[in-house]
Amino acid sequence: MDQFISEKPIYVQIMELIKKDIVSGKLKLNDPISSVRELAMTYQVNPNTVQRALSECEKEGYLRSDRTSGRYVSADEETVKQLKESMLHEWVSSLVRQCQDIGLEEHQVCELIHRIYQKEGNPA
Amino acid sequence: MIEIQGLSKYYGKTRALSNVTLSLQPGHIIGLCGPNGSGKTTLIKVLNGLLNDYQGDVRIDGHEVGAHSKSLISYLPDQTYLAGWMNGEHAIKLFKDMYQDFDEARMRELLEKLKLNPKQPMKTMSKGMKEKFQLALVMSRKAMIYILDEPIGGVDPAARELILNTILENYNPNSILLISTHLISDIETIFDSVIFLKEGEVMLHDEVDNLRTTHGKSVDELFREVFKC
Question: Which residue of B has its CA nearest to A9?
Fold first, then answer.
């Protein structure tokens, strides 16, 4: 249960987990989503919280529900692309804000990002 | 489903509950939180008909506390009530005789999952084993209301996860689940809403996600702030 931070509602954090799985390709178009009860147990959260996260994802168009057979991923390629871009934007903005807060220069940050990418891209 | 209006309870001159007004609806898991001595167990005892000399009005499913409400509530007390000479089989027999809504097949399944042996006498079980066993009994009833008084108090963190999953897997989504605890951080993600009791008074009753949005804090953090010594 350490996976959730305090500042945000849990349903929002579960939405983020689902979106991450969609963007990373772990969940693909038309893949079935586990039942509310199963997800509640996986995340160890209240089933109503899962329900809320899923219906919000539906409203935003990432999931669709079939009255008889459950829920499926409905995000097509274009939607996934947009989602990926908005996540990238959100994370980088937050990174940049934090770097600015402690007075780092743009080139310092970019250099470090570059170095980390090189190191992780070419493991010794 | 549960309507409490102006409930007060004194033990002699000591006030245990003071003008408590609460309305609890089905389909919710509700956390009853408060430090030791804040009135959690007293409130639970009133709901279960174990204390009668209180002021105020308590209605469950439209009835006063009594035979009807008792048949609706599956209750896990904070202390063991199974005699030491009993083993699991005796307790299962007892529940079968006492409660029409007791599902023995589910009980057997749960015992297997919790790795408990129904032949083992109560007096040789550890505290954690007894707690798990009683929780299994309580969750094997198909009740409208479950009231669990400190269900994770006596077990280690690994067993807590198992217990939470047992609760989540077995509770009826249309029932009320009222869980008292002071171990909030371990369990708060399964609550829809929480009630904070302080010196017998309701300090707060709100939805967990509301609290996170308004205060930017987890229930545990908020609790520590409200009850700072």
Answer: B209
Q: How far is A34 from chain B (nearest CA, A)?
A: 14
Model pTM score: 0.82
Which chain A residues touch B186 with a CB distance below 8 Å? Answer: 1
Cβ distance of A46 and B213 shorter than 8 Å = no
Q: Write out chain B in H/E/C secondary structure.
A: CEEEEEEEEEECCEEEEEEEEEEECCCEEEEEECCCCCCHHHHHHHHCCCCCCCEEEEEECCEECCHHHHHHEEEECCCCCCCCCCEHHHHHHHHHHHCCCECHHHHHHHHHHCCCCCCCEHHHCCHHHHHHHHHHHHHCECCCEEEEECCCCCCCHHHHHHHHHHHHHHCCCCCEEEEEECCHHHHHHHCCEEEEEECCEEEEEEEHHHHHHHHCCCHHHHHHHHCCC
State the pLDDT at residue B183: 82
Report the residue of chain A nearest B191, measured CA to CA.
A46
- Please state whether beta strands A63-66 and B28-33 pair in parallel, antiparallel, or not at all (unpaired): unpaired
Q: Which stretch of DSSP H or E encloses residue B55? A: strand B55-60
Band (pLDDT 50/70/90 cuts) for residue B129 is: confident
Q: Do B60 and B1 touch, CB atoms closer than 8 A?
A: yes
**Which residues in chain A have their CB less than 8 angstroms from residue B212's CB?**
6-10
| pLDDT tens, residue order, chain A (124 aa) | 457 888 888 999 999 999 999 999 899 888 999 999 889 988 889 999 999 999 999 999 899 988 888 899 988 888 899 999 999 999 999 999 999 999 999 999 999 989 998 887 655 4
pLDDT at B158: 78
ipTM of the complex model: 0.73
Chain A nearest C-alpha distance from B191 (Å)? 6
Using the structure block, give the residue that is written with the tokens 């008074």: B201
